[in-house]
Amino acid sequence: DTFTGMSCAAPVLAGMAALVNDFFIDKTGRPLTHAAMCRFFLDHAQDIEAEGKDVLTGWGIPRLPDPGEIDVKKYQPEEEKTMKILLIAGHGAGDPGAVATVDGVKYKEADETRKLVALLAAELGKYEVDVQTYDTARNAFADYKAGTLALPAADYVLEVHFNAIAADPGDGKTKGAECYVTTTEKGTAVEEAICKAIAALGFRNRGVKRTNFAVISRAKAAGASAALLETCFLDDTDDMRLYKKSPEKVAQAVTGAIAAGFGLKK
């Protein structure tokens, strides 16, 4: 009598798969993934009947190759890439940026951007991501003008600023958070999420706009997705009261939007 069909083939293939996994565990310390095991069998099938895959015989007869002929690296998963995020604090190095006095307290944009960047770095550090901060003793825009701007390799660059109304400081009407991207940026989902997350704390959502600011344009030209965040208005009493109440919540909101947008894991 003959014994054929899937009931016959299944235990044979299972035994072969076990031998293959023993081989890879010995060589790499881990078994093959499901996809890699399927690829291994397809690579070592002996074609029969019609050339190539056919209805009657599929890919052919599975064969186990000589162990010395196996290309181990071919069946190993690619190393997961750790996303790199670069944070840049706007102004500094002698440039205070916007300056405003709210409730008797004098605020300098350069100081506030550095405080917020430090909070963002701490929050992002809770995720599986490589977080870098542009030297806070320097001014990225000044470096750009001097021709010395050197941005480390990154997948996403966020330049942090605070807004102000030079013509009419503290008019009490112009306020809120907004993001800028370059005109060549394809998607703005992350930036829209950032603005929405900050707005959920009580700020006005001024949305995402496109302007080729120098630093983010340089970052974009280098291959990174880049944005400039105007956190809120430094010279608006309502904005600064709300921001100073809990800058940590603003950092958490921005980080949460970035993490969700790029699928970061804690």
Describe the structure.
The chain is α/β, with parallel strands linked by helices. The protein has helices at residues 6-28, 34-43, 109-124, 140-146, 189-199, 214-221, 237-245, 247-262, and strands spanning 45-46, 61-62, 83-89, 99-102, 105-108, 129-133, 156-163, 177-181, 205-210, 225-233. The longest helix is centred in the N-terminal third of the chain and has 23 residues, at 6-28. It is elongated.
**Tell me about the biggest sheet?**
6 strands, mixed
Poorly predicted spans: none
| Mean pLDDT metric | 92
N-to-C span: 59 Å
Structural class assignment: alpha/beta
Described by the principal axes of the CA atoms, the overall outline is elongated
Per DSSP E runs of 2 or more residues, the count of β-strands stands at 10
Taking strands numbered 1, 2, ... along the chain, how are they ordered across the largest sheet? 6-3-7-10-8-9
Summarize the structure.
The protein has 266 residues and is α/β, with parallel strands linked by helices.
Question: How are the SSEs placed, and which strands pair?
Answer:
Layout: H1 6-28, H2 34-43, E1 45-46, E2 61-62, E3 83-89, E4 99-102, E5 105-108, H3 109-124, E6 129-133, H4 140-146, E7 156-163, E8 177-181, H5 189-199, E9 205-210, H6 214-221, E10 225-233, H7 237-245, H8 247-262
Parallel strand pairs: 3-6, 3-7, 7-10, 8-9
Antiparallel strand pairs: 1-2, 4-5, 8-10
Keywords:
two-stranded antiparallel sheet; 266 residues; 8 helices; 10 strands; alpha/beta
